[in-house]
Amino acid sequence: MRYLMTTGPSDTAPDKKLFAEMGEFVRELTASGVLLATGGLEPGGTRITSNGAEITVTDGPFTEAKEAIASFALVEVRSKEEAIELGRRFRRIVGDGQSTIQQVFSA
């Protein structure tokens, strides 16, 4: 099962300890084959909205910056519970904030 794990921006600047702990976490997940992709995302982005035949393109940032996604990880695990445990480990490393886990369905 694949899960997309996303997290919002943080008010706290990362320090050397955070980089070291996150580096070890990423190395562990990569070596085990669980981590398929990870990365940071540009703030704001571009929103494309459709309404009938009308397509609207709007460049960010958007007013609800607290709902923005700052980074992601795509993982492959055996169960939702395993994905949740990875999310718990991630939050313990990075501290306060919010992450979302969503199952990725393939065709």
UniProtKB/TrEMBL annotation:
Tree of life domain: Bacteria
InterPro entries: Dimeric_a/b-barrel, YCII
Signal peptide: none
SUPFAM superfamilies: Dimeric alpha+beta barrel
Record-annotated YCII-related domain positions: 1-89
Family label: Belongs to the YciI family.
Full protein name: YCII-related domain-containing protein
Classification lineage: Bacteria, Bacillati, Actinomycetota, Actinomycetes, Micromonosporales
